[in-house]
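Q: what sequence does this backbone want?
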């Protein structure tokens, strides 16, 4: 199981792109894996023939566990299904097949009984995938009574499902069909109605865990301010009018990213992280942009945003956001962030508070731009206002530090000409 992200601890095999016996070249797409950040396709770093698959679809394994072997054509699978690891003992010794007893012609005409599972020694470990074990527990299927069809005789999901679909051996008169409890009896309705349990994906589980850890361990405090976006709105309108066909027009969120990048360069403590009682300050300004995709939140990174122009930030932001929605984002594009911007303004949300993406020092929550009456030179005139909320880790940023950083972001957006310098 390869490490496909900096925080990945285990992965789930979603599908194999190659079958046993297929030729594999370096760079060939070999297997799709669900990680803690996204679904990713792993490309083979070796060439040869796919000799053995040890992790079937749905299996969840820790980093470093052998999931397949690529070797020479015609090479036999490793004994015991240990993936060729010299330090791994075979899980079971194959049982010799009993000799078939002699039968007369009358007995031979009768259908053969269903094959019985191989005999196992007391205490012998049953080889079964994690998914097969979970399904077996849910359906009360005895794994010891099953014959595995997976690599090395391992019991897989299909074996458990087939066992659950077969009728149990009859030792007495069959019960009438009406005696079987209805399927809905397993999930009786409650005062809230019918209950349906939805299992979280690996990515959703990781988001839930990291956000809970962030709120539990990082002492959040929040700073809110309003930004006069009138000049930014005018500046973007001029950029849009001057853009040629096919040119990317920077969005207001791109302006926010650029303003944050400049401010982070001027306030390096905000471009840091808290680790093991120390504050780390980073030399690169890499801003993560929160993107909603497939019932989860993914944060791709715009690297060195302080050194890039608005149009380049716009191009890169759209590219990584599209790759997130298509499920083709790569691990390097999800790593290395030093600060995060989360924008819900496109949904009409005027303001909100975000949870810090640990171990970063802060996250800026951006609301929508609202046309509101404002007072200028003693007169009430139309204005464009945007509310932003900065969540800070109090172990890294104190109130005055966060306030100065946020004031600099506000000044840059209210005078957008400085974003082009």
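A:
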């Amino acid at each position: 199981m390869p490490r496909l992200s900096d925080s990945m601890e285990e992965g789930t095999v979603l599908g194999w792109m190659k079958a046993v016996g297929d030729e594999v070249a370096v760079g060939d797409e070999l297997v799709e894996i669900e990680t803690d950040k996204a679904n990713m396709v792993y490309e083979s770093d070796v060439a040869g023939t796919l000799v053995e698959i040890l992790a079937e679809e749905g299996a969840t394994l820790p980093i470093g566990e052998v999931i397949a072997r690529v070797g020479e054509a015609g090479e036999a699978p490793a004994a015991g299904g240990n993936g060729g690891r010299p330090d791994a003992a075979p899980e079971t010794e194959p049982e010799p097949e009993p000799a078939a007893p002699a039968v007369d012609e009358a007995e031979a005409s009768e259908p053969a009984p269903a094959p019985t599972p191989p005999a196992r020694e007391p205490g012998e470990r049953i080889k079964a995938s994690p998914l097969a074990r979970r399904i077996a527990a849910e359906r009360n299927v005895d794994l010891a009574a099953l014959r595995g069809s997976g690599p090395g005789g391992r019991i897989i999901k299909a074996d458990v499902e087939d066992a659950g679909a077969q009728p149990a051996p009859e030792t007495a008169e069959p019960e009438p069909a009406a005696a079987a409890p209805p399927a809905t009896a397993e999930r009786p309705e409650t005062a809230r109605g019918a209950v349906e349990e939805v299992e979280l994906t690996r990515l959703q589980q990781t988001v839930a865990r990291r956000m809970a850890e962030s709120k539990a361990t990082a002492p959040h405090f929040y700073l809110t301010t309003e930004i006069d976006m009138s000049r930014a709105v005018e500046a973007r309108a001029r950029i849009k009018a001057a853009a040629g066909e096919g040119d990317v027009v920077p969005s207001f969120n791109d302006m926010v990213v650029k303003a944050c990048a400049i401010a982070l360069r001027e306030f390096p403590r905000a471009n840091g992280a808290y680790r093991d009682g120390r504050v780390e300050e980073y030399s690169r300004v890499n801003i993560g942009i929160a993107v909603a995709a497939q019932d989860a939140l993914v944060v791709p990174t715009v690297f060195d945003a302080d050194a890039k122009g608005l149009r380049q930030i716009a191009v890169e932001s759209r590219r990584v956001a599209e790759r997130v929605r298509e499920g083709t984002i790569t691990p390097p594009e999800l790593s290395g962030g030093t600060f995060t911007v989360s924008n819900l303004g496109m949904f009409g949300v005027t303001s909100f508070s975000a949870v810090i993406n640990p171990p970063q020092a802060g996250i800026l929550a951006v609301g929508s731009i609202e046309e509101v009456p404002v007072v200028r030179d003693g007169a009430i005139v139309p204005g464009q206002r945007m509310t932003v909320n900065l969540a800070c880790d109090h172990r890294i940023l104190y109130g005055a530090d966060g306030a100065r950083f946020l004031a600099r972001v506000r000044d840059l957006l209210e005078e957008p000409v400085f974003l082009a310098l």
